[in-house]
Amino acid sequence: MLFMACCRQLFLPHARALALTTKMASSVNIICCIRRNLSSSSSLRSSMPAWVIDEYGNNGVLRFTEDATAPSVNSASEVLIQVHAASLNPLDISMRSGYGSNLLKLRRDPVSLGQNGGEFPIILGRDVSGVVVDCGSGVTHFKPGDEVWAAIPPWKQGSLAEMVNLTEYEVSHKPRSLSHKEAASIPYVAATALSALVNAGGLCRNNCTNKRVLITGASGGVGTFSIQLLKAWGAHVTVTCSHNAEGLVRGLGADEVVDYTAGDMATELGLLEKFDVILDNVGGDSEQWALGLLKPWSGAKYVTLVTPFLLNIDSMGLLEGAVHSGLNLHQKAITNMCNGVFYRWGFYAPDGPALDEVSQLVDAGKILPVVEATFLFSQVPLAFQKVEGGHARGKTVVTVAQEEEGTGVTEEEGETSDTSEQVREEVRQAAPKS
């Protein structure tokens, strides 16, 4: 039963080279600019500029093309979006290298079982912020011209392209207070954090008051979002990060910060009051000591986002890998249940309606975008290199379409508190610049 729940979460519809020359990068910009200006109807194009991969590997497999197949509205529930900005996540690095390819290929095309290479070309990028250009006949929540954002399911073509096609249930209206560049930094980490904290961790805005939550590896995208979400819901948040990220996480609301580089982190955390929920973004040997930090026999939950599920399927095959993963999860869950705590896996689960609540929190100043670095569309390989380097302090964003000055809410149109602006400035100062 635990294994089946794991699979259901994973499939939830609502979870070349760095040596590219400057000349090529300039050409990419020119091509994209010309294509955007030649056609007055983006939805009628048969091709579009995009970054694709034709095989799995390192950064050298990234290829720019101006002739990628352009998506179109093919069903009543679909929404066609012109991409203004995208952002990269560690998942994109893993997918570029083939992580999850066996299961994702089967999800894209169920008749592809046993076939090799049929999934290419693949467009990466799980975050999108853009403008609706076309809708299916059954779409009721969106219309052409609407500014939207979304987390893209990993089996669908991604946002490192001019256009992307999603169902209306995977899309949400973009917060009015954010530019597309800022908005693109949030959907993937929001979907991942919500899936982990709500679906697996059992938390929500109605039961979070005074709950004690520990987030390990809190300076990355999922961590910085989770801090803000939990504080907006009234939780007490303790985080682990390196010393140079302390200003960032405190500026976002963390109540207690433990520097994992300063000494014995497990001992220091053990001196604190025990926790109701632990969100583990680190993995490794953290399970060996973190589970003991939970309040026993009180419904406390340990949720890890670092699971072996897809790795097992990649290495063992679909059936053996799935069975092995299910047995592994079942064994850990039973062992820890006997010790009075719950052990669970968290998965990335895209969900448009869930982003609606996030949008409201953003416009209320409760959640701020944390953008560490911004790259042009011509610099996608450099953006991948940045994310692959690790030690993130927020998100890496790629601007696909040029935004007009003044995008976002004006002083007359929206309300932004002084406190929100002060925190925003602290975040900007604490986060390293590209």
From TrEMBL:
<keyword id="KW-0560">Oxidoreductase</keyword>
<keyword id="KW-1000">Mitochondrion outer membrane</keyword>
<keyword id="KW-0496">Mitochondrion</keyword>
<dbReference type="GO" id="GO:0016491">
    <property type="term" value="F:oxidoreductase activity"/>
</dbReference>
<feature type="compositionally biased region" description="Acidic residues">
    <location>
        <begin position="402"/>
        <end position="418"/>
    </location>
</feature>
<keyword id="KW-0521">NADP</keyword>
<dbReference type="InterPro" id="IPR020843">
    <property type="entry name" value="ER"/>
</dbReference>
<keyword id="KW-0547">Nucleotide-binding</keyword>
<dbReference type="GO" id="GO:0005741">
    <property type="term" value="C:mitochondrial outer membrane"/>
</dbReference>
<feature type="domain" description="Enoyl reductase (ER)">
    <location>
        <begin position="57"/>
        <end position="398"/>
    </location>
</feature>
<comment type="pathway">
    <text>Cofactor biosynthesis; ubiquinone biosynthesis.</text>
</comment>
<dbReference type="InterPro" id="IPR002364">
    <property type="entry name" value="Quin_OxRdtase/zeta-crystal_CS"/>
</dbReference>
<protein>
    <recommendedName>
        <fullName>NAD(P)H oxidoreductase RTN4IP1, mitochondrial</fullName>
    </recommendedName>
</protein>
<dbReference type="GO" id="GO:0005759">
    <property type="term" value="C:mitochondrial matrix"/>
</dbReference>
<keyword id="KW-0524">Neurogenesis</keyword>
<keyword id="KW-0831">Ubiquinone biosynthesis</keyword>
<dbReference type="GO" id="GO:0000166">
    <property type="term" value="F:nucleotide binding"/>
</dbReference>
<dbReference type="GO" id="GO:0006744">
    <property type="term" value="P:ubiquinone biosynthetic process"/>
</dbReference>
<keyword id="KW-0472">Membrane</keyword>
<feature type="region of interest" description="Disordered">
    <location>
        <begin position="401"/>
        <end position="434"/>
    </location>
</feature>
<dbReference type="InterPro" id="IPR050700">
    <property type="entry name" value="YIM1/Zinc_Alcohol_DH_Fams"/>
</dbReference>
<dbReference type="GO" id="GO:0008270">
    <property type="term" value="F:zinc ion binding"/>
</dbReference>
<dbReference type="InterPro" id="IPR011032">
    <property type="entry name" value="GroES-like_sf"/>
</dbReference>
<keyword id="KW-0809">Transit peptide</keyword>
<dbReference type="InterPro" id="IPR013154">
    <property type="entry name" value="ADH-like_N"/>
</dbReference>
<dbReference type="InterPro" id="IPR036291">
    <property type="entry name" value="NAD(P)-bd_dom_sf"/>
</dbReference>
<dbReference type="GO" id="GO:0007399">
    <property type="term" value="P:nervous system development"/>
</dbReference>
<comment type="similarity">
    <text>Belongs to the zinc-containing alcohol dehydrogenase family. Quinone oxidoreductase subfamily.</text>
</comment>
<dbReference type="Pfam" id="PF08240">
    <property type="entry name" value="ADH_N"/>
</dbReference>
<keyword id="KW-0732">Signal</keyword>
<feature type="signal peptide">
    <location>
        <begin position="1"/>
        <end position="17"/>
    </location>
</feature>
<dbReference type="Pfam" id="PF13602">
    <property type="entry name" value="ADH_zinc_N_2"/>
</dbReference>
<dbReference type="InterPro" id="IPR037397">
    <property type="entry name" value="RTN4IP1"/>
</dbReference>
